[in-house]
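User: Mind token order:
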Amino acid sequence: MKRTIASAILFAIATFFIAFGIAEISFPESFLTFTDHEWLLEIWPKAYRYNMHFGIGACAVCGLLLIPAYRLQKDFAIRMLETLCRIGIGGMFIFASIFKIQDPHQFATLVAQYQFFSALHLDFVNNFFALVYPQFELWFGLAMIVSPFVRESAFAIFWMFVSFIIALAWALWNDLGITCGCFELEGAQDKAEAWTSLIRDLILIWPTFWLATRKNKSLIGIWRKK
């Protein structure tokens, strides 16, 4: 029992660090971030430029904390990790879909800014993509959380991450300087934003791949005794 409690405490701390890390990488002005605090900027005016470094560091700390949590109580750690990954990744995709579903025209404009389909002479795909893709994000995100079909949901989300990575790498290679469009529909932005989005996706694709290897169970089913 003591080992389980200790593992749970480590998971709670690790959850904070991964949430803090993703916030620093993707949401630099949210309540979880550190580098945008006025008192820190007074001491270190350029601190905001290092949000990505703090974010990656926090994600690394999270990974290190999971090692002793796993060694303390293997079965509990695996169940907790799957639960947190499903809720976190599924919730993120649900949240990401809302803005795009509400404003498909703006999202189609953003998709066109990548110039990916234009390079393939498939401009007509932009509007179809803008209408369909957010629906995939919403429904597979929901399925990840509320359905037992974790493998199918994770497999679909894994390939969505692959598409995001390809799109962002394309934008950076061609020096397009546009925002990811993952959580907000804005136009041209600092090139660094594409880098932070790419790093975030490269981090999150791995737990998604791991979920695709898990057995199909509901979140409640994960915690049922074998």
